[in-house]
Amino acid sequence: MRVTLRHPFIRQTTYAALPSGEEQIQDICRIFNLENTAQTAVIVDEIHDNPDANVLLRNKEFKLDELNYLMKRMDGFEGLESEVFYGVASAQKLSTGKDLINLTFNTHCYSVLSSFENLNQQGKRMHLNEQEWVREEELRTFDGQKYIEDMIAANPSPQLSVYGFVYPNSNQPTEVYNGKTFPHYAYRASPITVVLSQGDASELVELPTPQSAIDKALERMAISDGEIAVSVINFDMPDKIAQIGLQRTSLDDLNAFAQKMQEVGKGDHEYLSNLVAFTGITKPEELDTLMASMYEFELYPNIRNHLDYGVHMICESGHFQYDDNLEEYMDFEGYGRDRASRECGVFSPKGYLVYHGYNQQMEHLLQEKLGLSMKESEPMTELKLYMPLKVISWQQEDDWGHYETSDYEEELDSSELIGYEDDIRRELELNSTPKEVERGLMAYYGKADSVNAKVQKYVFDVEEHRGELFGVAVLTLHAPLNEEELKRIKDEITGQASDGLGESLEQREIRIDGRAVNVSLWSSGNDWSLQTAEEMGFESPNFNMTMGGMA
Fold first, then answer.
1. What is the per-residue pLDDT across 406-433, written as a single tens digit (0 to 9) for each?
2. Left, alpha or beta for 258 (phi > 0: left; psi -120 to 50: alpha)?
3. Is the separation of the CB atoms in 386 and 533 below 8 Å?
4. Which residue did the predictor score with more confidence, 259 or 408?
5. What is the pTM of this model?
6. What percentage of the chain's residues is helix, strand, coil (to nearest 5)?
7. How far apart are the first and last CA of the chain?
8. Which of 131, 324, 485, 501 is the most buried (most CB within 10 A)?
9. What is the DSSP string of 455-511?
């Protein structure tokens, strides 16, 4: 729900979408300058997209986590649950977080009669709500009108609400929420769901989550010391991965593993599971190494020898124009053997595995598990790819030397940006995320090929050459790129320059001598290109790198 929250002590408000994750809860506390604890309270100022919830909750104070949990429960209402919830809450004038949360677990204990029309259909729905599950044949033949008549006769004094008459049924409400620890309720599909427990106190936690969410769960459980039991009750990953990854026992380790699985994404779960099977790893630390290098592999299931490999590469890979009339003249096995001899690959009962990477831990693991002989590592090198910058401004200078917004854009020469390189770098860095620390924008490449293995990292920067300022993609390489690999990484960088980070940059204004300008790494004109220093005719840089940076 779209909610405006109010500070509990001062007239300050902020907008929020609830229910939300812990990161958004942290943002709310930061805006209000409140400590993020299990007791932190806020006031509901207004709910914008649910009139019933607005009437029920407006101007009431709740613990922030309690309000968020209540919203999760309300977001999961099905069938009659919402109608019964608001009817009972109105009739019984419920207002505390504890009472409202308990009601979300007890909607099957009540019926709300809003009109006396179509009693048979209403009665069937009420019966289904009471029983929570009814066979379709039973519900079809059930006498709904008699159900309502019996309900009215047994309850001559129903509670009255603006939603209708509220009747209890045969189910008895129970206190599920004690006002301290939240009842176990899995709201989202998470890589790992655990239950933390000590004595009679327990809480469900969906991983990954920030440490503040774990700290608040322990606070609600009143745990300050002593051993905490951690039980995995659900996971959303292939069994092969879970059998290894969930050998971890500490909460911190499980949380870190869940974060890695979330970064991998469900779309690549099957690929990672196949890698696990190919490599034969069995330990959590081995899985961590594999996940760090997972896009540096190519898998060829059911290819178990050089002949299979040669047939696949020539006939099926699309790398060659294949004429099946020449099949008897082709040495498929010889080609497969020659190609395999130039790769770090190994045949196994699962198929053929090729490793393109340069991770020493991964190399040692492959040697140990598969006897794979690795190529000698090469020194890291640097490659720069240059692109022209497009600079525009929507401001024009008036007669008094001031800049005012105009109705048309003016394109400026990139030379006017010289001296403002740090301003552009600062805007580029504002768009970076923690995911990019190790690999820069290669963190988004996501293809299992030699480019992912050879390019350790690339970032955008700006450089002056021949009186002009150029955008530059700075690549850190494990090994030189061949022509096809260079084309692939150029395509990737072009996408980032036009639609990714470059699009974010061009939406940010940079001040040049008091004039607001917008800088683009890409333009749709025919003069845009992405070229090496040699192709641009720049002086060749020194490619050798040391551990301390460029030599």
1. 778 888 998 988 999 999 998 888 877 7
2. alpha
3. yes
4. 259
5. 0.75
6. 40, 25, 35
7. 55
8. 501
9. EEEEEEEEEEETTEEEEEEEEEESS---HHHHHHHHHHHHHHHHHSHHHHHHTSEEE
